[in-house]
Write a structure and sequence with these properties.
Layout: E1 3-4, E2 9-11, E3 17-21, E4 25-30, E5 33-39, E6 44-46, E7 51-57, E8 65-71, E9 80-83, H1 88-100, H2 109-112, E10 125-127, E11 130-135, E12 149-150, H3 151-167, H4 187-201, E13 209-210, E14 212-214, E15 232-233, E16 236-237, H5 238-255, H6 260-279, H7 302-316, H8 320-329, H9 344-354, H10 361-383, H11 400-418, H12 421-434, H13 459-463, H14 485-490, H15 508-511, H16 515-532
Parallel strand pairs: 2-9, 10-15
Antiparallel strand pairs: 1-3, 3-7, 4-5, 4-8, 6-7, 8-9, 10-11, 12-14, 13-16, 14-15
Helix pairs in contact: 1-16, 3-4, 3-5, 3-16, 5-6, 5-7, 6-7, 7-8, 7-9, 9-10, 10-11, 10-12, 11-12, 11-16, 12-16
Length: about 525
């Protein structure tokens, strides 16, 4: 195909852009009737995709309906909708993904439908190399396509979701049909609480956080309840402690309205972790040589401490935190980063949502300017290519779609700060890329889009013997250095970065799923909905 669109759809009153490749003309149809013809494209070579491409701007088209393009070669694009609320089902599914990742409980048919399964991983776990230390590490979310649970990864996913809720509360008044639905708390907070309770289990008595709960190697493609490998917890780290401290403090403030006892527990846990951080230096994680699961190694804990101290200051007003925050910012921390290894952006979100009446004016102004500088850089990159993606060829690495979505978060918050259209339009371009406006003509969200990917690297997807994958899972996306055997067989050497993708189960380096690839999409879509669904 030569016309690439957001395969789910567009708002009636939003910008609407498609990308064309190697054609001189295309025609837009609604209900099989011609709406408008486009021609005279100025094709330019795109390094990300290796394509000669241009754009079709059809923002003027506002009539609701089902649309598609044809090109002058007779090809037909995927169908898509234009409506006032094209993303309701998508928004529900990308949130419910976290329920389907729940560990330690039965997923009953009335909530999980055909994807129900028995409880898994309910046995006590012991500390690796010290079996005298044991704990009940129940609950939480399976991190990815495997069954490990990792503190930093889980905490960052929680942070994305809590900030999404904090900015867009009114968009989360939807039922996810989970066991807690109807209890008076928004379901996104019910779901996040399930992960928070696991994180509390991973806290040592002195406030330090164990790094991960995992088997020594990944099990085969079996259902979670059939995973017979023993699980262990690994030693504490200052990185995981900083991440958990930040989310405990952030969550304590949010949950106070709904569950005072839970809020109090979270506050106490946050303060314990904070005091441990003050008393202890850097504790890095070194994956035990006999352990082959996700490492989540991070040699620097300054950004995690920054996030923790900012949230503790918001929660308690502890004046020690302001000095600590200023000292860490002198290390040239990336204050717009929102990934699992670099979390400095969470401090910016905290400071800039709290406002100058909470934090000193100079600190607020500094972080605001850094955020807008990065957003402007992303706008320039996005508008500089016809796929609208704020990426260069070197950005297509493992989990490149996370990078796209985190860029979308930065752009959304820049719009929140300024109200400028350039930021929300660029954010929409990142969103469109994920849903099909890309060189693969693939929607990277299962169950959404005519050509949605179908074969995530996810153990239950194989083991449940169900043809269709669970809807709402985000793929990791193109990786210019595919390293799994299946991807290497499918992707020829020298393939353009945006095309280094394989929709096959075995391709963990291009097609795995994770909780922290879904969480930024929840943020991005919640914010877009808040702008266009008044």
């Amino acid at each position: 195909m030569s016309v690439f669109t957001n395969q789910v759809g567009y708002y009636t009153n939003s910008v609407k852009i498609a990308t064309v490749k190697d054609v001189s003309a295309c025609t837009l149809f609604r209900n099989d009737k011609i709406v408008k013809e486009f021609n005279g494209f100025e094709l330019k070579y795109d390094e990300n995709s290796g394509d000669n491409i241009s754009v079709v701007d059809f923002s003027e088209i506002k009539e609701p309906g089902i649309y598609y393009f044809t090109d002058n070669l007779g090809n037909k694009s995927c169908s898509f909708t234009i409506s006032d609320n094209p993303y309701d089902k998508l928004f529900t599914d990308i949130q419910k993904m976290f329920y389907f990742q729940r560990c330690g409980m039965e997923l009953e048919e009335k909530y999980a439908g055909i994807y129900s399964h028995k409880a898994c991983h309910t046995a006590k776990v012991t500390l690796l190399k010290d079996p005298s230390v044991s704990c009940d590490c129940l609950g939480g979310w399976h991190d990815a396509g495997d069954y490990g649970r990792y503190v930093s990864a889980g905490a960052v996913a929680v942070a994305h979701l809590l900030y999404a809720y904090d900015l867009c509360k009114d968009k989360f008044n939807v039922s996810l049909n989970i066991p807690e639905s109807g209890n008076g708390m928004p379901d996104i907070l019910n779901e996040v609480a399930y992960e928070l309770k696991f994180l509390l289990c991973m806290q040592r008595n002195d406030g330090a956080m164990y790094h991960k709960c995992t088997s020594m190697y990944h099990t085969g493609f079996v259902m979670p309840e059939d995973d017979g490998l023993p699980f262990f917890i690994t030693p504490v780290t200052s990185v995981s402690t900083g991440d958990a401290c930040g989310v405990f403090a952030q969550a304590a403030a949010i949950y106070k309205k709904y569950d005072e006892e839970f809020s109090k527990t979270l506050k106490e846990a946050a303060i314990k972790s904070f005091e441990w951080l003050l008393a202890n230096p850097l504790y890095i994680f070194e994956n035990p040589k006999e352990c082959y699961t996700g490492t989540y190694e991070d040699p620097c804990d300054s950004d995690e401490r920054l996030y923790a101290y900012t949230q503790i200051y918001l929660l308690t007003g502890d004046e020690r935190c302001l000095g600590l925050i200023r000292n860490i910012l002198e290390y040239k921390i990336n204050t717009t980063a929102l990934g699992w290894s670099d979390v400095g952006g969470f401090t910016s979100l905290a400071v800039l949502t709290a406002g100058p009446e909470v934090f000193p004016d100079d600190l607020t102004a500094r972080l605001r300017q850094q955020w807008l500088d990065e957003a402007d850089r992303l706008v320039n990159v996005s508008t500089g290519n016809s796929y609208g993606i704020a990426c260069h060829p070197y950005n297509f690495n493992w989990g490149s779609n996370m990078g796209v979505l985190l860029n979308g978060m930065v752009l959304c918050f820049a719009h929140h700060l300024t109200g400028l259209d350039k930021y929300i339009n660029a954010a929409i371009a990142q969103f469109d890329y994920i849903l099909g406006r890309n060189a693969m003509d693939v929607s990277y969200v299962t169950g959404h889009g005519e050509r949605a990917f179908r074969n995530p690297h996810n153990r239950p997807t194989v083991a449940d013997n169900i043809d269709d994958p669970i809807p709402g899972f985000v793929s990791g996306g193109p990786n210019r250095f595919p390293c799994d055997p299946d991807a290497k067989k499918i992707i020829p050497e020298g393939t353009a970065p945006m095309k280094c993708f394989a929709d096959v189960i075995g391709s963990y380096s291009t097609n795995e799923i994770t909780i922290y690839w879904n969480s930024p999409l929840v943020f991005l879509l919640a914010y877009i909905k808040s702008v266009f669904e008044k």
